[in-house]
Specification:
Binding site for (6S)-NADPHX: 64-68, 129-135, 158, 259, 313, 367, 434
CATH architecture of the largest domain: 3-Layer(aba) Sandwich
Domain YjeF N-terminal: 18-221
Bound molecules: ligand NAX, adenosine-5'-diphosphate, potassium ion
Catalytic activity: (6S)-NADHX + ADP = AMP + phosphate + NADH + H(+); (6R)-NADHX = (6S)-NADHX; (6R)-NADPHX = (6S)-NADPHX; (6S)-NADPHX + ADP = AMP + phosphate + NADPH + H(+)
Structural class: alpha/beta
CATH superfamily of the largest domain: Ribokinase
CATH class of the largest domain: Alpha Beta
Shape: elongated
Number of strands: 19
Family: Belongs to the NnrE/AIBP family.
Binding site for K(+): 65, 125, 161
């Protein structure tokens, strides 16, 4: 059993891939072995996580996820706990593995009840796993709502019920955000699923653990992956500022110079050799506390040897500069207003596609609304399947795509998407996206290929937020400078 952290490197399998692995593993093992392993793993995690829990409520659904819960109940009962099971199954239609576990739970003396106990110290959600086919309703929805409204911790078996394991979309919302932030933990079985890590998945699942049930996952094709912490890049003694590349920040229209300066500061602090600020607001002055930045007229910059970070605070004025940037920049990071301009202009779309065909490294950094505009759809559709939306954009424009938000997805043509697990909602404040664009620019200027540059910068950006002292505000300018102090 392994806890997943922002540093974990792991393959993620969708429901189809997980089913394939489950069938292959079950074929080599005696009947009911996998469910017995699953139930034991659930019981062990429950005992380790809530060792003092006296009243354990295990809510079991009609299928094999419920079977895991019944098996865990039998295991807990045998270890001196007194679980109470509420089971939504129908004895005639219970799948064989779950039926075997039901019999084991009964034989162990587990208490069954029609409705949840009056109070509980730990709730185990074994209602639905990867077989969920519709939104929970009726008693299942009521049980989920009371489980997640209570103060006691919740352990979800395999997947939080109501969450789509492939996409992280909640099919119903039995799990409103809670002020008292009751602990949630999820034990994913056999494989890790993408939906646990993006969209609403992180809130629904809480801390994620994996038990592979002793099975080898090499037989199925992963749908995505967790890229984990990037390697350390040591600097050679013989290197010089030219070794780390030039970044040109192009944006900062009147009234929005701050966005471009944030990106510039972030690129500088992330290690770019030289950073030029090509501000669209000709009257804007540079921040005197950052004399390293060089102010330039954007039209005067020769981008052919530079990484251009374009769009931060760009306003409508960025449109006029985009044809030159897209045609000439050696590397490009396209953010914010530049993305919106491209979404509205067929000629700019052609230029972006042409960069892809020329294999000129390009990273697009949309938040969900910007991604929706580029895909000519709406935010809800993007959020309903973030990995798919990011991959569509990457394939459409021949670019690396960073789809921002909880569980940022990084996609590139011909690669499996990866999901980043560093970062938290303290990043939900103005300007943090500009800082990220600058960091991606610095990583590309240092010579990393676009997908690696994107993954590494996204991880570092989130990691800074994870390390941020709880008593200090997280501001984009401090983030751009690389930390709170
Ligand atoms: N077969 C096995 O030996 C193993 C099964 N495993 C467990 O089995 C789960 C998959 O089992 P299943 O394929 O039976 O699927 P589930 O138990 O996730 O759900 C399928 C059952 O729920 C019903 N259902 C679906 N959506 C519903 C809804 N909204 N409201 C009410 N009922 C609904 C279906 O009609 C079916 O009866 C995994 O998530 C995992 O927990 C793991 O223990 C690995 C081993
Ligand atoms: N809830 C969240 N959890 C993790 N990261 C988040 C969350 N909300 C925002 N972020 C991150 O903060 C940054 C915000 O970027 P963006 O939306 O472009 O904001 P801005 O335009 O104000 O800079 C992105 O890197 C995004 O992934
Ligand atoms: K579940």
């Amino acid at each position: 059993m392994q806890r997943v952290t922002s540093s974990t490197v792991a393959d993620l399998f969708d429901v189809a891939g997980t089913r394939m692995l489950e069938q292959a593993a079950a074929a080599t093992l005696p009947p009911h072995t996998l469910m017995q392993r699953a139930g034991l793993a659930v019981a062990r995690l429950a005992m380790a996580w809530a060792p003092h829990a006296r009243a354990v409520w295990i809510a079991c659904g009609p299928g094999n996820n419920g079977g895991d819960g019944l098996e865990a109940a039998a295991q807990l009962q045998q270890r001196g706990f007194a679980p109470v099971v509420t089971w939504l199954g129908d004895a005639d239609r219970t799948p064989p593995d779950a039926r075997a576990s039901l019999e084991r739970a009964r034989a162990a003396g587990v208490a069954f009840a029609e409705s949840p106990p009056a109070t509980w110290d730990l709730a185990i959600d074994a209602l639905l796993g990867i077989g969920a086919s519709r939104a929970p309703d009726g008693a299942m929805a009521r049980w989920l709502a009371s489980m997640h409204a209570g103060a006691a911790p919740v352990l979800s078996v395999d997947v939080p019920s109501g969450l789509d394991a492939d996409t992280g979309r909640l099919t119903a919302d039995p799990m409103p955000p809670r002020a008292h932030a009751t602990a949630r933990i999820c034990l994913s079985l056999l494989t890790l699923k993408p939906g646990l890590f993006t969209a609403q998945g992180r809130d629904a699942a809480g801390e994620v653990w994996l038990d592979d049930l002793g099975c080898d996952a090499s037989g199925a094709k992963p749908a995505a992956r967790l890229a984990g912490a990037p390697p350390l890049h040591a600097r050679l003694h013989s290197s010089h500022k030219g070794s780390y590349g030039d970044v040109a920040i192009i944006g900062g229209a009147p009234g929005m110079a701050g966005a471009a300066l944030l990106a510039a500061s972030a690129a500088l602090h992330a290690g770019a050799g030289r950073v030029f600020a090509g501000l669209l607001d000709g009257r804007a002055a540079l921040d005197a506390s950052q004399p390293e930045l060089m102010l330039r007229d954007p039209a005067s910059l020769d981008l052919s040897q530079m990484t251009a970070v374009v769009g931060c605070g760009g306003g409508a004025a960025i449109c006029a500069l985009l044809p030159r940037v897209l045609s000439t920049a050696r590397h490009a990071v396209i953010d914010a207003d530049a993305l919106n301009a491209i979404a509205q202009d067929a000629a700019l779309k052609l230029l972006l596609e042409a960069r892809g065909r020329r294999a000129q490294p390009t990273v697009l950094t949309p938040h969900p609304l910007e991604a929706a505009r580029l895909l000519d759809t709406d935010t809800a559709e993007v959020q309903a399947d973030r990995p798919h939306a990011a991959q569509r954009l990457a394939d459409r424009f021949g670019s690396t795509v960073v789809l921002k938000g909880s569980g940022t997805v990084i996609a590139a043509p011909g690669e499996r998407p990866s999901i980043n697990l560093s970062g938290n909602a303290r990043l939900a404040s103005a300007g943090t996206g500009d800082a990220l664009a600058g960091m991606v620019g610095a990583a590309m200027a240092s010579g990393l290929p676009a997908p690696a540059a994107a993954r590494e910068a996204v991880w570092h950006h989130g990691h800074l937020a994870d390390q941020w002292p709880a008593d200090l505000p997280l501001t984009a300018s401090a983030l751009a400078r690389g930390g709170a102090r």
